[in-house]
Amino acid sequence: MLILLPPSEGKAAPSRGAALDLSSLSLPELEPARREVLDALVTLCQDDRDKAAAVLGLSAGQLDLVDRNAGLETAPTARADRIYTGVVYDALDVATLSTAAKRRAATRLAVASSLFGVVRVGDRIPSYRLSGDASLPGLGPVAAHWRTHLDRPMTAAVGNGLLVDLRSGMYAGFWRPGPDLAKRVATVRVLHEQGGVRKVVSHFNKATKGRIVRALLEDGADPRTPAALAATLERLGWSVEVGEPTKSGTQLDVVVAEL
What we know:
This protein is an alpha/beta fold.
């Protein structure tokens, strides 16, 4: 089972640690593509702070993030699960997982990244700012860049297991599993039900996804189909509705009444 998470917009900035080594990251075949994005981002941020802020969608009060990007080559790194922050990662809380669950996290979790394409939680990366809808001078839209590079390594990473795709729409556009994987792709949507009305609420969605991933890692189950994943989640206490299979996978709706 491979669980694919979205990144976080906000990121922790380590104060010390080794500099970035692209050759050390998981999915090493992505190194040339990662180098292209890194070079384009660093060059933009080193050459013109104001232009970089505009391209990256940052305000005048966020120029420190431009400076952070400008120094990515030598910035300190930390494990990806310590760099990414926010609701999903707070709920997942990798640091407090049991020893067995941490071992599973190392092999079962991956994170979509505008800068690196995809990383594993144990990969050492610097804090950066680059949204999934950005377009970099000399490179173009980062989403289009990753669409041309991710299919083969991600298909290999899924292997014969189940892909649990928890990415947001923006990052889902980086790579869409082919129809040959569809029977083994489960996307998860969280619906907040109140007074008989269901709707997607961002905070509920993110927090519940983090808790689902944590529970799966602690439980140790390794479902191989969307239906088996739904059954596992039901056993773990969630209410799950399974959609009809499509050429892109099967959607599971997790219905929650409270956070």
